[in-house]
Amino acid sequence: MTKPNGYVLQRGFSPIDGKPFVVIMTMNSNNRKTGKMLQVWILNESVNPVEAIATGADYTICGDCPHRKQSDGSRSCYVNVGQAPNSIWKAYKRGSYGNLSDLDLAEIKGKRIRWGAYGDPSIIDRYLVKALNKHAAGHTGYTHQWRQPWAQWCKGLFQASCDGMADYLDATAHGWKTFAVIPQGSEAYSGKLCPATADNSQATCATCKLCDGAKTDIFVEAHGTGAKYV
Questions:
Q1: Is-contact 178 158, C-beta < 8 A?
Q2: Percent of the chain scored above 70 by pLDDT?
Q3: Average of per-residue pLDDT across 115-132
Q4: Closest of 161, 125, 141 to residue 40, by C-alpha
Q5: Phi, psi torsion values for 173, nearest 5 degrees
Q6: Mean pLDDT of 98-103
Q7: In a 3-state reduction of DSSP, which class is residue 123?
Q8: The sheet that has 112-118: what strands, in order across it?
Q9: In angstroms, rounded to a whole number, what is the distance separating the alpha carbons of residues 2 and 229?
Q10: Can you give the three-state secondary structure of 63-98, one letter per residue?
Q11: Which of 66-70, 74-78, 109-113, 153-157 has the lowest mean pLDDT?
């Protein structure tokens, strides 16, 4: 029997607004920056990602992330939801993915997990994250919800996403390792430049291993179609 190219890890109701979300892990990736990691997507269960951004329904899975679409129409998020997220949502609606019970843990062994290829991983069940991490070779993860009481379990597992010096100082004062996005060409205020984005670097997220919430502070210059709005 052919194994599916992804699995539905969880369906639930967001602690952000109480609306339904779905968590899907895809097993293959051609993402040059991340390398061959298992990619975890957090999507609004009932609204496709393109419509969700247009209507604000992405709040369910992104919360108060400042990179969401703003009232003036600008959006600084690097994720093009019309591509992978929309395709994955449609495949989910067609029933293309297996269930968590179908997942052979041997498929995870020796691989690294990217928690949050889209969406905020803090809304995922903490025990699911920790259980799968035990079988993986490593992971990355970032959360903008690090101030929320219900997201404190993420400390030490995911980087606190910061959007300025005030965020950085607040997060580090509360024990978080951070990940900061800075405007292109601006002076960094935290940590180390993301090796996967450094000039002439051969590193990928799969080989770097730094953004696991426990090692160090990382920053990256804004990239993607929304970089000009950062």
A1: no
A2: 94
A3: 98
A4: 141
A5: -65, -25
A6: 96
A7: helix
A8: 98-99, 6-13, 20-26, 38-44, 112-118, 138-143, 159-162, 178-182, 218-221, 192-193
A9: 43
A10: CCCCCCCCCCCCCCCCCCCCCHHHHHHHHHHCCCCE
A11: 74-78
Tokens (6 digits) for 10? 């969880």
User: pLDDT band for position 1 (50/70/90)?
Assistant: low
Nearest-angstrom CA–CA distance, 60 and 65 = 11
pTM value?
0.91
Instruction: Report the alpha-carbon distance of residue 139 to residue 132 in Å, rounded.
Output: 10
Q: What are the helix and strand counts (H, E) for the chain?
A: 6, 10
DSSP H stretches of helix in 16-164: 49-55, 59-62, 84-93, 126-135
